[in-house]
């Protein structure tokens, strides 16, 4: 008996590979292809339990209506299957093919029974296998020896290919992704903005390239590393208004470590993110804007991407999100802009920072509301008028006497601010999303710079209304309209900073066309009335054509 059984043990026990074997192709015949034309085979009784997400299993061969029950082999396999529970079909009782079970399909079922009996004997429960069943298996194995050998060869090939893929894959824990944004930009109108002829800007072509490493050690955590090069520059129009969301700072193609963070779940309802470099608000909370695509997708402008108060969050630090329920979450975060600098007025706690608290309410899939508070030191909004960014404004307007002959040193006045934001997005239908926000910032200077300026406060407001049209024209495409007021100084008690007397409006429209799964093309236009909140300035029109490649 032992010698006899050794002949059965040579059959392979790789059942999963059977799903990949095209039985009809092996037989050299051609049939019409359809989804899931091959059966699922199982080798253990544990897999007989109902699976509501996929398909229920069938443990009786007589339930497989497309298998002819007249052949002796069918009767023999039926007995083995029902005795040892070693094969399963589809819930409708068929193999989902358009012909009776082929010899190769039958051989696959036989192979499953051989593996199941092997398992029983290997676990020292051979008394459960009768001599009659062993004899039946030997006869079936002899009759289907050619088909079993072919299956064994296919399994060996699959195993070799799998081993080759594992040996040559990039990493067992890391997924490599990338993104390239190419943009053509130009200023189409605007003669004079604060003494700058905006139309003197030439048409430009630039690119932002990112390589991203997404690593997971446990399956529920993420270590994110991004390397970036970006030579796209904003056009010089004499005001921070209308800046582009995908533009860089220095216009070089030097590659730098642009982002590095680690996200993990502390509990089932608590998520933590530790950021080592280039963190932003969208890393630590939901900015509640359909058009927030981090420059690659959605809005073309910095203002249209998110409420400008969020731009005070920048650098390295920690973020925690506590989900009280599916509808309510609280996000807390602290980011410092110069955490690696040990000099005076720098470091993670003594340098520029932003501290955020946001309550996000999502009572349904259609409605999301965010209530935001940000306390910041030496951070700016990055959009709006020059006066709405007081640190930069004073540096450009005031100078102090130089200590030595040469260019005078710019004045650096520290500011502290408290900002409040209300953001909302409502999905009226699958093809129409209404959104918007309002933001208020109260900023005060913390130094007079030796009497150079007076102490005081600034009140800065901004707002926007957004209209989104998902899947307009084609699946995956997005049309967007943004109307709003970029940050404006509405009140000032600092003598050196006047309030903005007029109101500039920001109009933006774009159409993000989904060319393929990996390519989008986005033409758009930005129109600024009374730029820098000054009616003496001519309107400015900025055109952009952005193409995004994802891989």
Count of beta strands:
20
Poorly predicted regions are 1-67, 90-99
Known CATH architecture of the largest domain? Beta Barrel
Characterize the biggest β-sheet.
Answer: 16 strands, antiparallel, barrel
State the helical fraction.
10-25%
SS-based structural class?
A: alpha+beta
Number of domains: 2
Relative strand content: 35-45%
Strand arrangement, major sheet: 1-2-3-4-5-8-9-10-11-14-15-16-17-18-19-20
Molecular shape: elongated
CATH superfamily of the largest domain: Porin
H/I helix tally: 10
CATH T-level topology of the largest domain = Porin
First CA to last CA: what distance? 58 Å
Order of helices and strands, N to C? HHHHHHEEEEEHEEHEEHEEHEEEEEEEEE
Q: Specify the CATH class of the largest domain.
A: Mainly Beta
Structural Rg: 33 Å
Overall pLDDT: 82
